[in-house]
Amino acid sequence: MSNKPQDISAQALLDELASRIESGAISEAEVRTLLEQSTGTTSTAPSPTGPIARLPSLSIMRLLYVIGAIFITLGVLYLVSQIWDDLGAAGRIFITLGLGLIFAGTGSYFMLRDPARGQGTVFHGIGGCIIPGGALVTLDEMGVDFDSTWPITVTIAMVFVFYTALTFVHRRVILTFWAFTNGTVLTYLLMNSLLPTASGEHYDYLTMTIGISYLICAYLFRSDCNDRLSPLLNFFGAIGFYGAAFSQVPDRVIMEMLFPILAFGGLALSVALLHSRLLLVISNLAIIAYIIYFTAEYFADSIGWPVALILLGFIIIGIGYFSISLNRKYLKQ
Amino acid sequence: MDDSRKRAILLAVAFALPLLFIMVIFITTFIPATRLSTDYDFVYATCSKNRNPGSYYCNNYLQNLYDVVDGRVRERELSADLDSDNDGVLDSNENYSTRLFLHDTALNVSEEISLIEAQRLQLSDEIVSPDGVAVERDYSSGGSFFPFVRVSSRFGWYLSRGSARQKLEIIGDSERNYYRDDLMFLGWVLDEQ
Question: Which residues of chain A neighbour B140 with C-beta distances below 8 Å?
Answer without folding.
Answer: 199-200
